[in-house]
């Protein structure tokens, strides 16, 4: 009945407008009654004779002269997708009426005085007609933290500007952050940016563009990532100043971290995301709903290790292999190299320790890297050429040595049958652009991590040809190493080192020291962090060339640079229609959060504009965990204990028992166990002060601890408790 009732109300509004040449006046009872009569007469003409919903008609009459920008954005996203369907013939078109109502927003406003909705002669009159002046003022005075200025972030800022968020005279501020720079590929869906903004910070540019929409907006912009490393910037004090946090990210770990900060500081969070034509919104409200971290998406299906290493069957496999090679060669190994030499500052000390029989973790691989370290551009090019031979020729020859083409399994079937593809060695051809591309990009990356300078002349074809023509490429020597064929096997964490390898390490290190090639400058590398959006850094060039060479080796259809970048960079496809719809729905939930609406008013949404489908669900009610004897807690509860300078761990445990009626049996700070009775020496800690146990920094006012309690029955697990915030001194209030 509800859709038909909405349809009848809309038809009544159309008839009213046609008959009187205007829309109903705001709060006019006479116009409302006239519209209701029209609705009743229309209902009688319809076959199903639907019952007229008087409340819907009256609210439609009251808000007919209003305009709710976020609702227009949501409906505009849907309508735009329908236009695209008509133009492209792609996806299923909508063959019926579609209504999106926000009665959840207006119904709680019924008891407000009618003057609340009357115009004041400013830009917010149309908004005021829908939600009233009091709620408008709350939006103006709002402090909101927006994380991410990508596609959804840009649309959110437009909604903020039209709603007047953060425009209050004395209160209100929009804080935004995004560490990324604007790329050309962003311009087709991040509509606050223009071509002349390319390579400028997203947050600063978005802030500037938003002010052209609403100059009264107060906005602070930053270029920080939001992660544990930025806790000094985005401290608990920062979060407590925010009324709402809105995330517009595709990084799941970052979203989980932000959610944890919102829960810790009792702040509402509105999360959203899109993937192509799909989108979702989720509202997290303190004490009313579950949090983002309360549920987990199923883990992504990983490509089996043996498939990546030896038996790729699709271009996605070769791209992931190339991405792994990039991480291993230019990020992971250099980082381990630096960490090792930070622990053991001199090569002479390491040599002495090895000779004395001491086992140093990672020692063999570090010494191997040191002994083979390129020290000139020529050596970087030679190393790249050797890697070409190893990856794309020797690897194929080794596999065919281990499993000749006529190899059969125990059941008599051929080993090399679908999905396994036999590899064929690739012969290096300098004139082949793919081969040259790998050589050049690999040499540049090796030069970067090994801190070897190079010039533009060094990058010329003439220079590279001269270098590789003069070098001797190692010949293939078959090995008897076992090739992993089990798809359930995982990549080993540590590769065992033989005694012969250890002896070689000693010899290589002695040689490096004698040759003055183990100096302080030699014990440093420059790890590279993968960055997909900077075309000048050669990261995607290397991965594209390496992936397509491996694909050629296995007779797999190659991928162009754009597809490789999308897969290697895990770029989530975005379309402007979905981002507009999602951001509009987020802004509508924001209005409810600001208005302090009850739990049943909030709605999460999942949509797919291709089908099209929009599903609204009520938010999940927060779960309550029982400890015992009627004592319980939710994720939003935090117990507090105020101490003093000589407050001991025993005082803390007694304070929890006296205040909350249950005695902790275990106290943990992060991953550090402060008190576990069964651990040796922990009973003695009861007499130590909390200051000595926790060792807070000078400016630290409190610490968040985790406590648990003894089970009612022996043998069962300890009962979990809520976080306990321990203040080192009693606060004034």
TrEMBL record:
Pathway: Protein modification; protein ubiquitination. Coiled coil: none annotated. SUPFAM superfamilies: Activating enzymes of the ubiquitin-like proteins (SSF69572). Gene3D superfamilies: NAD(P)-binding Rossmann-like Domain, Ubiquitin-activating enzyme E1, inactive adenylation domain, subdomain 2, Ubiquitin-activating enzyme E1, SCCH domain, Ubiquitin-activating enzyme E1, UFD domain. Keywords: ATP-binding, Ligase, Nucleotide-binding, Ubl conjugation pathway. It catalyses: ATP + ubiquitin + [E1 ubiquitin-activating enzyme]-L-cysteine = AMP + diphosphate + S-ubiquitinyl-[E1 ubiquitin-activating enzyme]-L-cysteine. Pfam families: E1_4HB, E1_UFD, ThiF, UBA_E1_SCCH. NCBIfam families: Ube1. This is E1 ubiquitin-activating enzyme. The gene is Uba6.
């Amino acid at each position: 009945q509800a859709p038909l009732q909405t349809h009848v109300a809309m038809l009544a509004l159309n008839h009213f407008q046609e008959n009187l040449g205007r829309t109903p006046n705001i709060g006019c009872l006479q116009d409302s009654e006239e519209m209701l009569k029209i609705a009743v007469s229309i209902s009688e003409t319809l076959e199903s004779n639907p019952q007229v919903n008087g409340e819907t008609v009256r609210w439609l009459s009251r808000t007919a002269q209003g305009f709710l920008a976020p609702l227009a954005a949501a409906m505009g996203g849907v309508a735009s997708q329908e236009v695209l369907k008509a133009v492209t013939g792609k996806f299923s078109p909508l063959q019926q009426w579609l209504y999106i109502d926000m009665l959840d927003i207006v119904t709680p406003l019924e008891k407000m005085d009618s003057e609340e909705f009357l115009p004041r002669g400013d830009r917010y009159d149309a908004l005021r007609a829908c939600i009233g002046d009091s709620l408008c003022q709350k939006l103006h005075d709002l402090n909101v933290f927006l994380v991410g200025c990508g596609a959804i972030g840009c649309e959110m800022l437009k909604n903020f500007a039209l709603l007047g968020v953060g425009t209050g005279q004395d209160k209100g501020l929009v804080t935004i952050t995004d560490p990324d720079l604007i790329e050309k590929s962003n311009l087709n869906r991040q509509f606050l940016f223009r071509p002349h903004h390319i390579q400028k910070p997203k947050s600063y540019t978005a802030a500037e563009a938003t002010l052209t929409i609403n100059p009264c907006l107060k906005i602070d912009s930053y270029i920080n990532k939001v992660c544990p490393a930025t806790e000094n910037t985005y401290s608990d004090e920062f979060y407590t100043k925010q009324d709402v946090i809105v995330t517009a990210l595709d990084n799941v770990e970052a979203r989980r971290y932000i959610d944890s900060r919102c829960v810790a500081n009792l702040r509402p969070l509105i999360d959203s995301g899109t993937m192509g034509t799909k989108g979702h919104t989720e509202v997290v409200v303190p004490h009313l709903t579950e949090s983002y971290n309360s549920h987990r998406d199923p883990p992504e299906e990983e490509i089996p290790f043996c498939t990546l290493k030896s038996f790729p069957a699709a271009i996605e496999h070769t791209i992931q292999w190339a991405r792994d090679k990039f991480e291993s060669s230019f990020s992971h190994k250099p980082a381990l190299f630096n960490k090792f030499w930070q622990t053991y500052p001199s090569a002479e000390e390491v040599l002495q320790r090895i000779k004395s029989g001491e086992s140093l973790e990672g020692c063999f691989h570090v010494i191997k890297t040191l002994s083979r370290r390129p020290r000139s551009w020529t050596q970087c090019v030679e190393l790249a050429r050797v890697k070409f031979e190893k990856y794309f020729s020797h690897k194929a020859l080794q596999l065919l040595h281990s499993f000749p083409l006529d190899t059969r399994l125990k059941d008599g079937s051929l080993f090399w049958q679908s999905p396994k593809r036999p590899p064929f060695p690739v012969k290096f051809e300098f004139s082949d652009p793919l081969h040259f591309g790998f050589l050049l990009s690999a040499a540049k990356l090796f030069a970067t991590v090994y801190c070897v300078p190079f010039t533009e002349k060094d990058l010329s074809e003439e220079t590279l040809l001269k270098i590789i023509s003069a070098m001797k490429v190692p010949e293939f020597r078959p090995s008897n190493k076992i090739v992993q064929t089990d798809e359930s096997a995982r990549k080993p964490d540590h590769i065992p080192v033989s005694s012969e390898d250890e002896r070689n390490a000693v010899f290589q290190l002695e040689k490096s020291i004698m040759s003055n090639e183990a100096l302080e400058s030699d014990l440093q590398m420059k790890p590279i962090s993968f960055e997909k959006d900077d075309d000048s850094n050669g990261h995607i060039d290397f991965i594209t060339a390496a992936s397509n060479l491996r694909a050629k080796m296995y007779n797999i259809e190659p991928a162009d640079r754009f597809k490789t970048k999308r897969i290697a960079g895990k770029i989530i496809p975005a379309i402007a229609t979905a981002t507009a719809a999602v951001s509009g729905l987020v802004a509508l939930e924001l209005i409810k959060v600001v208005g302090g609406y009850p739990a049943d008013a909030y709605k999460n949404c999942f949509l797919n504009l291709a089908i099209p489908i929009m599903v609204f669900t009520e938010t999940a009610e927060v779960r309550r965990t029982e400890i015992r004897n009627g004592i319980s807690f939710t994720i939003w509860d935090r117990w507090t204990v105020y101490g003093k300078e000589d407050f001991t761990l025993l005082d803390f445990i007694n304070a929890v028992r006296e205040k909350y009626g249950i005695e902790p049996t275990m106290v943990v700070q992060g991953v550090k166990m402060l008190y576990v009775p069964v651990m040796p020496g922990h009973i003695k800690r009861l007499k130590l002060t909390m200051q000595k146990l926790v060792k807070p920094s000078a400016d630290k006012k409190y610490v968040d601890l985790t406590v648990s309690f003894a089970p009612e029955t022996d043998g069962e697990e300890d009962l979990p408790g809520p976080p306990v915030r321990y203040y080192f001194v009693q606060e004034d209030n």
